[in-house]
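ugh ok fine here u go
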Amino acid sequence: MHGRSLERHATRFKELAMSWTTPEVKEICVGMEINDYMPAEF
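structure:
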């Protein structure tokens, strides 16, 4: 009985690992500004 239960859990794990949900994109205004940039050589 343990072998069959383990197979069922492994199958469910594979289904969950392979499932994909589209990420939700949210824009949040934080009121900041860029006042300096790093040099390209850094």
